[in-house]
Amino acid sequence: MQELCSFLLKQSRTLKISTLESLIIFVEALKGKIDEGIHREILQNILPYIRDEDFYLAQITLQLLSLLILENTKVIPEYNLALENCIKLAKSPLVQGVLLTRLLEIFENFSKNNLIDILATTDKLNQGDNKNSLNSIAKCISRMVLTTPNEKNRIVFIDLCIQNVKIL
Fold first, then answer.
1. How buried is 37 (Cβ within 10 angstroms: 0-12 exposed, 13-18 middle, 19+ buried)?
2. 83, exposed or middle or buried, with CB in 10 Å at 0-12, 13-18, 19+?
3. Where are the domains of the chain?
4. In this structure, which CATH number among 1.25.10.10, 3.30.470.30, 2.40.160.20, 3.40.50.2300 belongs to the domain 2-167?
5. pTM for the complete prediction?
6. Per-residue pLDDT tens for 134-159?
7. Which residues contact 149 (CB under 8 A, 6 or more apart)?
8. pLDDT tens sequence across 114-126
């Protein structure tokens, strides 16, 4: 696994894409059989590619991250780092199409598996003033709220939204 992940450190974009696609195949083939050490190693190596510099690379990385979240639904520190990167990516005004779909899947998987605090994540998504990214941010927030298994959090969030609308 270290050998495969080491290809992500190379300068070649094509090699990075091929490596990520190979990791996707690896994770899908070994569903339920990947130990936490390998899981965390993969996460640590893919986190730098969740950014708005190369959307295709980010899209493949998010696909792999989604599979990893479904594979291991325990809270681990790498998920916090992944979430921070996803929040930064969601704030990019250029996110759309398949990349946005992958990003929505990530927020859904985090929420569905209780890996995040939706209220805190929503606050982080709302920080900043880039009006061009409001559509993507709203979609991410709504996906988290709709898919959370915690009914209480859903109700609290909706009540907060209603209060904010009344203030405006």
1. exposed
2. buried
3. 2-167
4. 1.25.10.10
5. 0.90
6. 899 999 999 998 898 888 878 888 88
7. 112, 114
8. 898 888 888 898 8
